[in-house]
């Protein structure tokens, strides 16, 4: 953590300010420095965890910083487990060990958990567990397993709703596999979906009653969309577009209230797209390139603000090349087993192509990226562990890999 500032911005930004409001007894609100009332700009799970840390260890205290960053690091370390079991299930012991070891030394896993007060590590842990569970869900015909999956995915959504795009295929693929074996695929799928909705329903109802919005978990999409689509390409996410760093926007937010303020951004953003469709298409492609390579600009002023972008471009491009190589190898070996992770890589980033992108937005799927990079570097062979080969597991584990 950096040295504390007057507004404690680095201590969680919007999540930190909202957690402060909860800890002080003002309710879930005030996502910026002034106390402005209820909010739905941030998801609740990690925010309430941080509020609990504030209540026990002190508001913006050194002890609270040590505790929350230690918890983040613990979440990141525990992510090795779903990575290990996910790869072991699909590709054997050798690659499972390599992928788990890769996560231990993965720079993004270390940096974003040990330096940032945000939900990155918690979401990565929860979603990696969801992904592992979805790989084996079709092997469990009892309702309890499907119920548990729905509950787990609901909790993950309350941590970061960006993973919602993965729910349809993570649920439909095991339902299809279960149908092929004659199981109660429809019943089990409905149970999982209902469990998911039951977990999320209280927060949806809260947002409807308090914020008068129908957003599932958070309502800030149009602010982020406008921030990335207003004609300013000096940065992928220009700071002036956010109330936290622009007094003019902060005044508008306070005057209009959150719901009306976001409605205005919706109008501004859609009007801009209507008048500049080709600009929007071009900058969306540029954001897609940034998501996978970290490249945005080599302009001197930009690099002065982001001095680590140049080495990061080489690192992220290396990762993407080997990720695609790993996906290709896995797809050629077993399309059925590779399909979920292929869909995840293709679908998850789409909202960020439309709004703004940077490396921290990849964190929910970084464990799957590391898995694919591991396959890209080391291949699928398991010569050192014949009892962990895909062929062995496929013939002895209820046809796991061939799509039971």
String of helices and strands: HHHHHHHHHHHHHHHHHHHH
Please give the domain count: 1
Q: What oligomeric state is this?
A: single chain
Q: What does the largest sheet look like? A: none
The number of strands is 0
Q: Please compute the radius of gyration using only Cα atoms.
A: 22 Å
Q: Stretches where pLDDT falls below 50 for ≥5 residues?
A: 383-404
Please give the structural blueprint.
Layout: H1 13-23, H2 44-57, H3 62-78, H4 80-91, H5 93-105, H6 107-114, H7 120-136, H8 143-159, H9 167-180, H10 185-211, H11 221-228, H12 247-256, H13 258-275, H14 277-293, H15 300-305, H16 309-333, H17 335-347, H18 350-354, H19 366-378, H20 390-396
Helix pairs in contact: 1-2, 2-3, 3-6, 3-7, 4-5, 4-7, 5-19, 7-8, 7-9, 8-10, 9-10, 11-13, 12-13, 16-17, 16-19
Overall description:
This protein has 404 residues and is an all-alpha fold. The chain has one domain (13-396). The protein is 67% helix and 0% strand. The chain has 20 helices and no strands. Helix 2 packs across helix 3, helix 3 runs antiparallel to helix 6 (107-114) and helix 4 packs antiparallel against helix 5 (93-105). The termini are far apart.
Summary keywords:
disordered C terminus; 20 helices; 404 residues; mainly alpha; globular; single chain
In summary, what is this structure?
The chain has helices at 13-23, 44-57, 62-78, 80-91, 93-105, 107-114, 120-136, 143-159, 167-180, 185-211, 221-228, 247-256, 258-275, 277-293, 300-305, 309-333, 335-347, 350-354, 366-378, 390-396. By secondary structure, the protein is an all-alpha fold.
């Amino acid at each position: 953590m950096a040295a504390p500032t007057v507004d404690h911005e680095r201590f969680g930004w919007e999540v930190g300010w909202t957690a402060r409001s909860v800890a002080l007894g003002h309710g879930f609100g005030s996502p910026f420095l002034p106390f402005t009332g209820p909010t739905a700009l941030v998801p609740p799970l990690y925010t309430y965890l941080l509020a609990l840390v504030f209540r026990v260890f002190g508001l913006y205290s050194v002890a609270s910083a040590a505790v929350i960053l230690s918890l983040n690091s613990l979440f990141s370390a525990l992510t090795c487990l779903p990575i290990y079991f996910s790869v072991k299930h699909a590709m054997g012991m050798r690659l499972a060990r390599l992928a788990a070891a890769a996560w231990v030394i993965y720079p993004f896993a270390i940096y974003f958990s040990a330096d940032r007060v945000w939900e990155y590590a918690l979401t990565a842990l929860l979603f990696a567990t969801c992904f592992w569970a979805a790989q084996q869900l079709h092997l469990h015909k009892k309702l309890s397993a499907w119920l548990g999956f729905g509950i787990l995915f609901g909790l993950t959504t309350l941590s970061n709703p960006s993973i919602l795009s993965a729910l349809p295929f993570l649920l439909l693929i095991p339902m299809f596999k279960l149908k092929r074996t004659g199981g109660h695929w429809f019943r089990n799928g409905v149970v999982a979906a209902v469990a998911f909705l039951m977990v999320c329903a209280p927060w949806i109802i809260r947002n409807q009653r308090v914020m008068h919005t129908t957003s599932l978990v958070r309502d800030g999409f149009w602010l982020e969309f406008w921030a990335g689509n207003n004609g300013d390409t000096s940065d992928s996410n220009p700071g002036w577009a956010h109330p936290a760093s622009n007094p003019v926007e902060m005044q508008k937010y306070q005057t209009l209230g959150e719901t009306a303020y976001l409605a205005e951004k919706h109008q501004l953003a859609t009007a801009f797209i209507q008048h500049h469709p080709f600009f929007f298409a071009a900058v969306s492609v540029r954001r897609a390139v940034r998501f996978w390579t970290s490249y945005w600009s080599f302009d001197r002023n930009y690099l002065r603000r982001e001095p680590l972008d140049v080495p990061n471009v080489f690192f992220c491009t290396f990762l993407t090349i080997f990720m695609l190589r790993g996906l290709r190898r896995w797809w050629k070996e077993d399309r059925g087993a590779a399909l979920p992770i292929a869909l995840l890589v293709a679908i998850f980033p789409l909202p960020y192509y439309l709004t703004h992108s940077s490396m921290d937005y990849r964190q929910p799927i970084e464990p799957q990226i590391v898995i694919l990079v591991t396959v890209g570097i080391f291949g699928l062979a398991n010569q050192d562990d014949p009892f962990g080969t895909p062929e062995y597991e496929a013939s002895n584990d209820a046809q796991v890999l061939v799509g039971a």
